[in-house]
Amino acid sequence: MSEVPTHVTRVTLSSSTPDGDVLAVEEPLEIRIGEKNIAVTMRTPGDDFDLAAGFLFTEGVIGRVGDVESIRHWGSPNVVRVALRDGVALDASKLDRHFYTTSSCGICGKTSIEALRVVVEPLPHATPVRASVIHRLPSLLQTGQATFRRTGGLHGAAIFDAEGELVCLREDVGRHNAVDKAIGALFREGRTGAILMVSGRASFEIVQKAIVGRIGVLAAVGAPSSLAVDLARELNLTLLGFVRDDRFNVYAGEVSQ
Amino acid sequence: MSEVPTHVTRVTLSSSTPDGDVLAVEEPLEIRIGEKNIAVTMRTPGDDFDLAAGFLFTEGVIGRVGDVESIRHWGSPNVVRVALRDGVALDASKLDRHFYTTSSCGICGKTSIEALRVVVEPLPHATPVRASVIHRLPSLLQTGQATFRRTGGLHGAAIFDAEGELVCLREDVGRHNAVDKAIGALFREGRTGAILMVSGRASFEIVQKAIVGRIGVLAAVGAPSSLAVDLARELNLTLLGFVRDDRFNVYAGEVSQ
What we know:
The structure is a homodimer. By secondary structure, chain A is α/β, with parallel strands linked by helices. Chain A contains 8 helices and 14 strands. The first copy, chain A, has helices at about 50-60, 90-105, 110-115, 130-145, 145-150, 175-190, 205-210, 225-235; strands spanning about 5-10, 15-25, 25-35, 35-45, 70-75, 80-85, 130, 155-160, 165-170, 195-200, 215-220, 240-245, 245-250, 255. In chain A, strands 9-8-10-11-12-13 form a 6-stranded mixed β-sheet, with helices on both faces. In chain A, strands 4-3-6-5 form a 4-stranded mixed β-sheet, covered by helices on one side. In chain A, strands 1-2 form a two-stranded antiparallel sheet. The radius of gyration of chain A is 19 Å and the shape is flat. Mean pLDDT of chain A is about 85; it is low at about 95-115. At the A-B interface, strand 1, strand 2, strand 3, strand 4 and helix 4 of A face strand 1, strand 2, strand 3, strand 4 and helix 4 of B. Strand 1 of chain A pairs antiparallel with strand 13 of chain B.
């Protein structure tokens, strides 16, 4: 259930009219590994297994789909329990690092990017993209965002192949959750993609998730932050911002016409 | 320092042009109480003391400005240390609740809103507002968001009095941080305001911060989530969404023309 009806009063300069409206659903999801509570996130219900898998993968807690024995709801539609395969140890230091990097990244003497290098392997080389492929993406993202069109309240994340064909699209009230759902959906099939597009801005954490997901190009409808650009340039992610209205800006990497 | 210059390539359907651009700065801030690390948040530097005070206040860790002895940077521009006055005990259970409610709210058997009631006192009654006051707010917020205009990358939060006069405006790469900075700036002066306006969407956590800050009206440029509306109706917050272009929707509370 990703949307619910509600009643509103629509106010203009001259009128005030009762009406119906549709809201994007926001509910908490607790993600457990076995008996251990790993995280609680405010999310839009749906694709919960993709969200749990993508979250654990992009935060560095699990590395391969083969690490996962099962993912299921556990006593509540708002609790997901991930079971790891026999022999897959849950590295407690990775969990610590996870909590550290989720709330932020390394500080206290280290610069952020130095601390991050511990967690994220650089991409092997910058991925060049063709402008003609990028120009196609915004309309594909918009067309796919069905719940956003009805509620105005959901972030979208879409993964495309190198030719700009849509591979996977997910929506959520949370920016990070939409990305985790899209990456997690492919991760569960042992796949990845070439381009990640997000409906909002590109922050440090979105750049980090793209790199951990081994996706070479991040395209954002909104602006990137300073740290997003620094990290993309350091770790060979091609980073595009303001991707809309038949134009975009290249902040890291190379694009050909 | 809220913005930094960078170089970009601007790509259109027919051209590709090197140019300069300006990025919103994103850096980690560690918030400590004494020697204890309370949280790390990705924020735009500036107004760090407002951010620390607003965060601790809206998360329920401190209750009155008189609880605070001093707030200062501590060994790094990215670490802020808050000292509490003698006799002000740091309630460990509040901190636990803080971490719980930051990552989310109560689950596991309780519904979210039931769990929240433990943390947040309802507002005494719904605050009615005049439509003529609300219609003025979007242009005041836009005019005040200087860094957003240059970077496209900052969320804004503004607090107004009941007549719609701007009391305080803050910007940040993080939605929650902008709200914490604005509420924190007034909290440090022992003041509050009548209307909180945010440049983005209204989530559960923004609604919670408004209520803890005893602000009766939350106006969002974007959409509210289902949980934001539920919480606002339960706890007497007047909640307005899509406040732009001379119109808005009333999701909770009463508005007169």
